[in-house]
Write a structure and sequence with these properties.
Number of strands: 12
Strand content: 5-15%
Helix content: 25-40%
Structural class: alpha/beta
Largest sheet: 7 strands, mixed
Distance between the termini: 28 Å
Strand order of the largest sheet: 2-8-7-6-5-3-4
Number of helices: 13
Bound molecules: pyridoxal-5'-phosphate
Low-confidence stretches: none
Radius of gyration: 21 Å
């Protein structure tokens, strides 16, 4: 962190740009400014850099580079997946989980949309999903790992349900496809992204959450699936997302993903140990506290904690004054005063939701920092 006195525990909202990522990007912000679609050697070099980045992403997803479309971040990739499918099949329906990010909820709600509930641990109820699928369902979207409570969804089980539907449609002569999309914006640092193991047809990735540049990311689109374009123009990114490529962003995203996935096993272990210690210290010092969401199927870096009777906005500001940054929920919905739909989906009351703080750890987090946070919480709450 730039300011050593500050403690940043909001890595689900933003991650600092990694030095090596910045170094990889720099030439494309300076000397290597050429339009990758131009015909001369210098431009071809730039095109080569974009393609190399695409190969990095394809490698970690176990797919062909042509199945990766670069986007300006997770929101755009989610919009491309949802609008791209739904506008191709005008009378069709979409199902999303009840704990999706706004960049899924908002586009999905433009169409006939059903929500599949999660259980009290924040895991999608797969049996209920099975019942919600109709002959008109064309897309199911379930977040890989939730941004507020960190719970990891059973994509493989959802895939199994979708496969059954596909078989039954084939027998019934229903030609409508059914696809599985997952928003993996929060997953890049900690989870396996191999799409064949996940069973997804679309996967959203976000560079801004993996120590890459903001407004960088990608959508994996299984080969052969046709989507309506998001932005029309000069035909870049397979005509799905026209416009001269943001080369530095594409290159930075590929480097960031490569680094994050290379260190993910080690970093998951380190961060989950830190997280577990932090949770223990919280529970010891504040016995009334409640940790939200499954502890087993959870991102290694997430702590969502309800402090009964405490105003979360106030506590967040008191921590901020002490140089500790955390969040009252999703940074992306911070403008809304409504209690979090995610916390309500797992059964919290409005009051409990408004007593909940999210701490998310990251590469720079240390035991010294988490211990200081506990001490400061003690000063404020027991004070
Ligand atoms: C799960 C999830 N999806 C989508 C997004 C949107 O990402 P961005 O704002 O970078 O487009 C976020 C950002 O917090 C997220 O956590």
């Amino acid at each position: 962190m730039s300011d050593q006195r500050q403690i940043f525990l909001d890595y689900a909202a933003a991650t600092p740009l990694n030095d090596s990522v910045l170094k990889t990007m720099m030439p494309y912000l300076t000397n290597e400014f050429y339009n990758p679609s131009a015909g001369y050697q210098s431009a071809k070099r730039v095109r080569g850099a974009i393609n190399e980045s695409r190969r990095f992403a394809a490698h970690w997803l176990g797919v062909k580079p042509s199945e990766i479309i670069f986007t300006a971040g997770g929101t755009e990739a989610n919009n491309l997946a949802i609008n791209g499918v739904m506008s191709k099949y005008p009378d069709s329906e979409i199902i999303i989980s009840s704990i999706e990010h706004e960049s899924i909820r908002e586009p999905a709600n433009q169409y006939k949309c059903n929500e599949v509930p999660v259980d009290k641990n924040g895991i999608v109820d797969v049996a209920k999903l099975t019942k919600l699928i109709t002959d008109k369902t064309v897309l199911v979207s379930a977040v890989y790992a939730n941004n507020e409570i960190g719970t990891i969804q059973p994509l493989r089980e959802i895939y199994a349900v979708i496969e059954k539907v596909r078989k039954s449609r084939l027998q019934k002569g229903n030609n409508l496809p059914i696809y599985l999309h997952s928003d993996a914006c929060q997953a890049g640092n900690y989870l396996d992204l191999h799409v064949a193991r996940l069973g997804v047809d679309f996967l959203t990735l976000n560079g801004g959450k993996i120590y890459g540049p903001k407004q960088s990311g990608a959508l994996y689109i299984r080969a052969g699936i046709e989507l309506a374009p998001l932005i029309r123009g000069g035909g870049q990114e397979q005509s799905l997302r026209s416009g001269t490529e943001n080369v530095a962003s594409c290159v930075g995203f590929g480097k960031a993903l490569d680094m994050a996935q290379s260190m993910r096993v080690e970093e998951s272990k380190r961060v989950s140990e830190l997280r577990d210690e932090f949770v223990k210290m919280l529970q010891k010092n504040f016995p009334k506290i409640k940790i939200n969401g499954s502890m087993k199927k959870r991102l290694p870096n997430n702590i969502s904690a309800t402090f009964p009777g405490v105003d979360n906005e106030r506590l967040m500001m008191q921590l901020d004054e002490a140089g500790i940054m955390c969040s009252v929920g999703s940074a992306c919905s911070a403008s809304s005063d409504e209690p979090s739909h995610v916390l309500k989906a797992i059964g919290l009351t409005d009051e409990q939701a408004q007593s909940t703080l999210r701490f998310t750890l990251g590469r720079q987090t240390t035991k010294v920092e988490t211990t200081k946070v506990i001490q400061k919480l003690k000063d404020i709450l027991n004070g």
